[in-house]
Amino acid sequence: MQTETSQIPPSARILQLATAGWMSAAVSAAAELGVADELARGPRTVEDIAKSIDADAPTLYRLLRACADFGLFREEAGRVFALTETGEALRSDAPGSMRNFARWVGEPADRFTWSRLAESVLTGRSAFAAVHGRSVWEYLREETHTARVFNGAMTEASSGLIAPVVNAYDFSSFRKIVDVGGGQGALLAAVLAANPDAQGVLFDQPEVIAAAGRAFEDAGVADRVEKHRGDFFESVPAGGDAYLMSNIIHDWDDEHSVRILANCRAAMTADARVLLVEAVMPSGPAHAPTVKLMDLNMLVLCDGRQRTEDEFRALFREAGLELSRVVPGGLCSVVEAVRA
To answer: Which domain-ending residue is among 58, 90, 122?
Structure first.
């Protein structure tokens, strides 16, 4: 039996793929404008929505009718629009909201950089500095609005990854878990909530740590968490029996990744574990479009990459560690290492 895709003429399929960025831009615009928030109370006319968000009503209609065909909204008679179940995820206050992630992919920091993917393929390097005149990390430190959107996007993207990882990996043997580059602490909070005998250390840059804490309060574990400021390229807090990093190593090339891992090795106790929560790249021609697109995203933005199990093994070896096992946990796995 032929698939739906195989029944589409090749030229039409290429047109679908090539214009997928248009769809992404439309979703980002709807998220940026807060349309889903305006529809949270029920269906409204496009004129009413436009007045609330200070938009041009005829032009807003053009955006919303396109988004309706993507399944974000439902168009009713009289240019009235309502939220769909999918569109609910664009609300700021919805459980599982992805509004900030949708906004992030429309930010010039992301969208303009992706326009130079071919250049990255030719050079093997990130295109970010060529587009924006500085590295992505410098950009986010200096552009506070974009940084807030980015941090919100990363929190939203990770929220769906946390439960499968916590359910898949047994953290119960650890007494001191150091979350290296842990951001707002959502993963560490979930791990501590599921393991009441464990203590946690959230370690990140000073500006990140200054804004962290809500996740621990919401999970009822704030009394079991210390917050440490620092730079993981210089050192990490000592004495942990688990060093947890969620989608940190994929941000960096091999040289920088080995430096981070070596600092963890220097700080960890003799029988401790390094735990990388990462989307592991298949080693062969397996169908894994999400992981493969994440890999290209890491390339264009920051010289990072998604790695195969063998590539993680090689990184660990250079840092004085040894890969002990890979525990699947949904999209991401826990890649575990011990001291070599």
So the answer is: 90
